[in-house]
Amino acid sequence: MADLTDERERIILLQRMLCRLGAAWGIPELEVPVCGAWNEATERAVRLFQEKRCLPVTGICGRETWDAVAACCAEEEEKRAPVYLAVRELSLCPGDEGDGVLLLQAVLRELAGEYPLPEVPADGRYGETTERAVAAFQRTAGLDVTGRADRKTWRALAEAYNNAAGDC
Prior knowledge:
The protein has two domains: 2-79, no CATH class; 85-165, Orthogonal Bundle (Muramoyl-pentapeptide Carboxypeptidase, domain 1). It has six helices and no strands. It has helices at 2-25, 40-52, 63-79, 99-111, 128-141, 151-165. 23% of the residues are buried.
């Protein structure tokens, strides 16, 4: 039974890595449901990955494919800058505009794959959609749901963002 758990955990990790690569490369076909079961979607994504990386296209995730997926994830990870808590003094609320809001929107957009958040524009304006996304994140993170990006919200966002970055 331990082997099944290990197998399931390996499949979950593979599915997460494929999702990360799909998002990073703009290839939605790599973004498979993370369920821990080997299925047609996972096999198709593995085949597509193999094709893109000029590997033998088998649909089987052997050592060569696994190592290539992990290496690509590591490369993408190096490109991704962590969010530091330097913004913890920045409090944003509906109606605000500017670079701080753009940063907030970028973090929310990145976390949308990990959290049930509405799609957020990257327009630098703290409108209704950004407010709803902040509120949804706060709800999921167990924070007071205000829709405002206060100190506690920024800290939780930064932690979630940096933890999500470590999934690969």
